[in-house]
Design the sequence.
């Protein structure tokens, strides 16, 4: 049996759990990224193809990043904001690329959780909700897990679905360069043969507005280096996605081992962590830095967290950022290191 299909029995367990449902909601985390969108798109295709049950991809928050918006446009990923759904029409729920207990995931009240499919380390307060749970922390992308389901059933994957799954794997594993398993590699190669290359090119290279570059200029001016640690506190931002995007970019800075970026958007302070250090992982760093505040998740070299901010006045925001900075530098042994700007 192929290594990609080594857990193909899991998909049959999933389908048996969903058998008999009349309408299923597939839910991602807030502000969905390519892995959550690709995973939801692929799971919807699987359920509708195999069980003939109508599904809806629901989400909260928004899609901000230009590549993600182009992914939705080019591949026709139908997704509806939860606030626009009549949740009473659904009798089943699948949670993709996240888990109950994470702060960036709000479950609809009264709707039973049939399935949880994810690759992140479970939250410390994991309620273990879900009749079917497939959480594989050794896998780099949820899209790889969904791809293995389709392959396990021998279903031919249409180009649009293959492209969405492939792009999800590409982004979460940085082109198979981080947190990668045999499953990710096998799924990636299989999907490459089915993907729409022209659509993939549009997704990876969308045009960008001037405001995008202005935001990056502001962020780079705010970046400070403390030895092996790079920190960027954005304050308020119009786009929470820039927090993670900037973290990805700054990790390429020479001598950087840890990058932590943060920014406030609509009452939530978002934090992104990236590392190329092998001493500890992003999840454990967030646990120690947040020290009980907000919620967080992570996988190997990548992590993210969020803290609800009741008082978002400039004074309270500065206090929050100083507190997080103090914890971060203490945890990473750089508390006495002077700050150096990029300029």
Sequence:
């Amino acid at each position: 049996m192929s290594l990609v299909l080594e857990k193909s029995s899991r998909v049959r367990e999933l389908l048996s759990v969903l058998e008999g449902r009349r309408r299923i909601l597939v839910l991602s985390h807030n502000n969905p990224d390519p892995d959550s969108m690709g995973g939801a798109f692929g799971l919807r295709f699987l359920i509708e193809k195999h069980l003939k049950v109508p599904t809806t991809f629901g989400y909260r928050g928004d899609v901000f990043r230009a590549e993600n918006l182009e992914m939705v446009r080019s591949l026709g990923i139908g997704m509806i904001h939860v606030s626009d759904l009549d949740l009473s029409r659904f009798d089943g729920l699948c949670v993709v690329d996240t888990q109950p207990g994470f702060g960036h995931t709000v479950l609809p009240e009264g709707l039973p959780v049939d399935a949880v499919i994810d690759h992140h380390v479970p939250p410390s307060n994991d309620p273990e909700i879900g009749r079917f749970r497939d959480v594989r922390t050794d896998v780099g992308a949820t899209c790889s897990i969904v791809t293995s389901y389709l392959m396990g059933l021998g279903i031919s994957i249409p180009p649009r679905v293959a492209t969405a799954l492939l792009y999800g794997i590409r982004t979460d594993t940085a082109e198979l360069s981080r947190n990668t398993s045999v499953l990710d590699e096998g799924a990636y190669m299989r999907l490459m043969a089915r993907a729409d290359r022209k659509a993939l090119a549009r997704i990876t290279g969308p045009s960008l507005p001037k405001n995008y570059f202005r935001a990056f200029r502001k962020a780079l001016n705010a970046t400070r280096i403390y030895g092996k640690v790079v920190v960027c506190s954005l304050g308020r931002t119009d786009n929470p996605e820039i927090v993670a995007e900037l973290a990805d970019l700054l990790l390429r800075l020479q001598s950087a081992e840890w990058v932590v970026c943060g920014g406030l958007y609509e009452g939530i302070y978002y934090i992104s962590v990236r590392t190329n250090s092998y001493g500890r992982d992003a999840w454990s760093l967030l646990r120690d830095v947040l020290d009980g505040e907000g919620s967080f998740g992570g996988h190997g070299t990548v992590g993210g967290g969020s803290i609800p901010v009741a008082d978002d006045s400039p004074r309270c925001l500065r206090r929050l950022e100083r507190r997080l900075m103090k914890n971060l530098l203490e945890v990473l042994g750089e508390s006495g290191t002077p700050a150096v700007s990029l300029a």
About this structure: The longest helix spans residues 34-51. DSSP finds eleven helices and 13 strands in the chain. Residues 120 and 299 are 5 Å apart (CA to CA).
